[in-house]
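User: Batch of two.

Assistant: Item 1 of 2:
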Amino acid sequence: MTDVRLRTQERGDRNTIGVRVELARKRQGMKQKELLAQLQVNGIDMNASALSKLEGQTRSVTDFELVALAKILGVSVNWLLGLEDDAPEEE
């Protein structure tokens, strides 16, 4: 059985992409730790707390982070922003 923690805090209003980042990451079976490693490779220095806050929408997102997240997760920036309805394919 996988050790999955459910979100205990309500989502914030600091960004609009957090829900979709989490959705795309989970659809790929990617753990936060793996996403953080990929962000590092792409020149984005983010820690686990910052990613958790980003996904919980309690932290703002920079344009550099937005582009890197879209690239890593294999989705478009427009999809992350909610401007496209097409969901990423499950692997």
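Item 2 of 2:
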Amino acid sequence: MRAATILMFLLLWPPATLPQGKPQVWGYGVKQCRSFLSAFDGWESGDQAGIEEYLRYRGWLSGLVTGLSLATGSDVLQGTEPDGALRRIRIHCDEQPDDDFFTAAMALIRQLSRLGE
């Protein structure tokens, strides 16, 4: 519960006191879609290294979705499970392999929720 309170505090911090410029993205969000596609293919084929990498992407996405859902008070994936979300992100990445994983994830979140409105 304490972590949720801290997250809410940080997300609701007045914008004037936050650094200006592009939001910083860390971890797997900065990886290109090409890397995600490789991990996804490895997961599908049962390759151990691919499975492990896929699970890292799933963990990163789960953290992003959890944070956004707590901050907005809504289910930003509208009931979609992580593996289903990753399948849909794969479509985005197939079409735009130079995008980063964060961009692909946010495109899906915007499709499923009202964050983009």
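Residues 37 and 90 are 7 Å apart (CA to CA).
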